[in-house]
């Protein structure tokens, strides 16, 4: 199993605060299926506390491949989109890959999925793989353990 | 105190040390911003030939001296192709009559749904914007041509009254194509491409009549990956520009460089290739300059800068990613400087990213390459590795060769 750097919602948001959440960046977050909801909720809470921002979660299955800019464009400032890769969607991933420039036009975009889907996404999208700011294994704060990378 | 604690007391604001550095290292930052901030380092020669001028100078010279020429730039993902285009644009601005249009197709259209003629439409709309900003009282038919072009580009909604079909009158006709004796060098232009061509030429006419030097820089088509699709646009959209005195410089997919048909070399007047690195990346003065321009010397030792250059494999975007990750790890560890352990962690992280998706056949090819320097470029798995940058192409001493990306080589499991 490939061991990517481990983070938590708290650390992730702290990093966004350092790097600047409104600069174009794409984070691919890998999470165990059982922890997806907890990670989502913790990230939302940390964004609110640390940066005063809100999280806009949208399931990938609800994003139309030909309309990714519309789906991810922030209609309101102070919002960070989180795309939950809820199933393997090759057409959407191909669209992410070809239109990777549009993905993060408005600032940070978070992609969250299980290991299997995240790895399939990286393997199928060479442009995205090269432009992703970081690939992180994310766990909810309370179960966080060893930080070594 | 543990690094992970949520203390709100900050004795020393380390963010002010790392934030500017990390912002300057954003691998997907707007290149226009980087140019404005003077963060771009231009190569001082062609990466394949130290005796030749840098690519952007060669392109600018050709555009200035041979109007209407067509040039292509190939290179792997993250090799700095867009940067070369922007440097070309900058170089061309030395003449007051230069009209240089930069089109990043990914910004204008969804490349998944790109149709032939769309590139010409994008060029026409950019030329129209330029004219509107620089000239007053544009002719009515030119404005109408722009309106029609927009309709063709973005479509329109019309209401029609359905007519009853008459099946009684007329004989049914069947189309039969009789092939000619001569095979055309390029396929005939499609109807929509012809239509866009007329509109584009009308829009460009004031500039062409005033003998302006028009150069179109087209970015984004390399993301099509599939060489056949790129070829289709070249044979339709770019073919239209031939003979118009409008120069085109286009970014092309890397695989075309290795295509047996030699389409790139045959179609374009000048083709330039950016290999991952022309020398040992760890010794590359250019790569170190890129990091130093962004402030690396303030936060890391020379040996670590060399290490990052080496493990980037010469891929510019990986160079920035490694430096950025190392800085993030140092910040996370509450360190004032980036240490060797942070660089090592960043290399491992990048290597792991490239490790994803490698099956047995991929790994076998990588091992053959690492051990015997064998890489069958005609093989589809080998090409996949090259496109994904798990294998990099190098050029040294007049010889082109391949190697496993050094960050991937570092984490690639040994065979059981």
Give a topology summary.
The complex is a heterodimer of chains A (149) and B (416).
Chain A (H helix, E strand, L loop, with lengths): L5 E2 L1 H11 L5 E6 L5 H16 L2 E6 L8 H5 L6 E7 L4 H9 L1 H4 L4 E6 L1 H10 L1 H6 L2 E5 L11
Parallel strand pairs in A: 1-6, 2-5, 2-6, 3-4, 4-5
Helix pairs in contact in A: 1-2
Chain B lengths: L14 H10 L6 H6 L18 H11 L4 E6 L5 H12 L5 E7 H4 L9 H17 L5 H15 L36 H19 L3 E7 L7 H15 L4 E7 L10 H5 L2 E5 L10 H9 L2 H4 L2 H11 L3 H17 L7 H16 L4 H13 L7 H8 L3 E6 L2 E6 L1 H6 L5
Helix pairs in contact in B: 1-14, 3-4, 6-7, 6-8, 7-8, 13-14, 14-15
Major β-sheet strand ordering of chain B? 2-3-4-1-5
Residue stretches of chain A low in confidence (pLDDT < 50, at least 5 long) are none
Please, how many helices of chain A?
7
What is the multimeric organization of the chains shown? heterodimer
Tell the overall outline of chain A: globular
What general form of chain B does the structure show? globular
Number of helices of chain B: 18
End-to-end Cα distance of chain A, whole Å, is: 14 Å
- What pair of chains forms the biggest interface? A-B, 45 and 48 residues
Strand/helix succession of chain B:
HHHEHEHHHHEHEHEHHHHHHHEEH
The overall average pLDDT of chain A, rounded, is 87
Could you characterize the architecture of this molecule?
The complex is a heterodimer of chains A (149) and B (416). Chain A has helices at 9-19, 36-51, 68-72, 90-98, 100-103, 115-124, 126-131, and strands at residues 6-7, 25-30, 54-59, 79-85, 108-113, 134-138. With 149 residues, chain A is α/β, with parallel strands linked by helices. In chain A, strands 1-6-2-5-4-3 form a six-stranded parallel beta sheet. In chain A, strand 3, helix 3 (68-72) and strand 4 (79-85) form a beta-alpha-beta unit. Chain A is globular. Chain B has 416 residues and is an alpha/beta fold. Helix content of chain B is 48%, strand content 11%. Chain B has helices at 15-24, 31-36, 55-65, 81-92, 105-108, 118-134, 140-154, 191-209, 227-241, 263-267, 285-293, 296-299, 302-312, 316-332, 340-355, 360-372, 380-387, 406-411; strands at residues 70-75, 98-104, 213-219, 246-252, 270-274, 391-396, 399-404. In chain B, strands 2-3-4-1-5 form a five-stranded parallel beta sheet, sandwiched between helices. In chain B, helix 3 crosses helix 4 and helix 13 (302-312) crosses helix 14 (316-332). Chain B is globular and about 70 Å long. At the A-B interface, helix 1, helix 4, helix 5, helix 6 and helix 7 of A face helix 1, helix 14 and helix 15 of B.
